[in-house]
Design goal:
Elements: E1 19-29, E2 32-42, E3 44-47, E4 57-63, E5 73-80, E6 85-90, E7 94-96, E8 104-112, E9 117-121, E10 125-127, E11 131-141, E12 146-155, E13 166-177, E14 180-192, H1 193-198, E15 208-215, H2 223-230, E16 242-250, E17 253-262, H3 265-284
Parallel strand pairs: 1-5, 4-6, 5-8, 6-9, 7-10, 8-11, 9-12, 10-12, 11-13
Antiparallel strand pairs: 1-2, 3-4, 12-15, 13-14, 15-17, 16-17
Length: 294
């Protein structure tokens, strides 16, 4: 009888990936904005802290995994009912770590009904070296709904001595008002981030960038107050951020756009906080969540 050695090969274990899905529905009932429905799965959590923030309801999105890498996926869904006022933020900055393969995927879908207001205020997204992020945001607004939207990127934590030599990021926005496209963005960067950010037409050497979008019928009246907040005359001009404010009128509606850049994440937040605080108070009558405190 012939004996044969049998070779056993252990299967290659797949690396653990993070999944998260959460759905939040808010309604205005009996004169108050209240929670109507909450679903959460995996590492995606939503908490509703008790605040004394006027008539607006605060919601905090949490990634219990602590960060994202290639192959991770999160899905968020927010439904704001008629006349409700809601402020949504994140527990901390979202960190996008080095990806061995694939990308971190985040998809967010938001609807805001008639007479409702939403302040979408996630804290900054921090990109680490060799990270990869693919993010999509779709928002459907009723014709008279109001929106404040903030998204900010920091390319490496300067205070930690970190730099981003290589990364990939794709951020796609589609915002519709009354079924018509109001605002679209496709922000894509790939390759040597240091070289790209150093270009004058991109960031001029800055490593932190932010976009603020406001949808409201009176945004033309907000331009001058925002410019005074961003560049007050009594401040040393060297401390003023590299920022611009524009009001845009189109057949789909009125909107205001702020673009800003800064040399560090702290400098960006220092400029961003008073600007979004002004917008949020005009939109919801409430102050910023404490999580945005410098």
């Amino acid at each position: 009888m012939e004996a044969r050695a049998i070779e056993y090969q252990s299967p290659i274990a797949g690396m653990q990936r993070t999944r998260g899905s959460a759905r939040l529905a808010i309604r205005h009932l009996d004169g108050r904005t209240r929670l109507a429905r909450l679903y959460q799965e995996g590492a995606a959590k939503i908490r509703l802290p008790r605040t004394h923030n006027g008539g607006a309801l605060d919601a905090v999105m949490i990634n219990t995994a602590g960060g994202l890498t290639g192959g991770d996926r999160f899905d968020w869904s927010v439904d704001i009912g008629r006349d409700a006022k809601t402020i949504v933020t994140t527990q901390a900055c979202e960190k996008i770590y080095r990806a061995l393969n694939g990308s971190a995927d985040i998809e967010t879908r938001i609807t805001v009904a008639a007479g409702a207001s939403l302040s979408w205020l996630p804290q900054e997204t921090i990109l680490f070296d060799r990270s990869a992020l693919n993010r999509r945001l779709d928002i459907d607004l009723a014709p008279d709904a109001a929106l404040l939207l903030v998204e900010a990127f920091i390319f490496g934590r300067q205070a930690m001595g970190e730099s981003v030599r290589s990364a990939r990021v794709a951020d796609r926005w589609r915002i519709r008002r009354g079924g018509r496209l109001l605002h679209a963005e496709d922000f894509r960067m790939s390759g040597n981030m240091g070289t790209l950010l150093a270009r004058p037409a991109i960031a001029g050497g800055n490593i932190a960038v932010a976009t603020v979008l406001v949808v409201h019928p009176d945004v033309a009246d907000w331009v001058d107050p925002l410019r005074r907040v961003l560049c007050p005359p009594d401040r040393d001009s060297a401390l003023n951020p590299n920022a611009g404010v524009s009001a845009i009128c189109s057949p789909a509606g009125e909107r205001l756009v702020i673009r800003m850049m800064a040399e560090s994440g702290f400098a960006l937040r220092r400029a961003l906080v008073p600007a979004i605080d002004l917008c949020n108070r005009r939109l919801t009558g409430a102050g910023l969540p404490k999580l945005w405190t410098i």
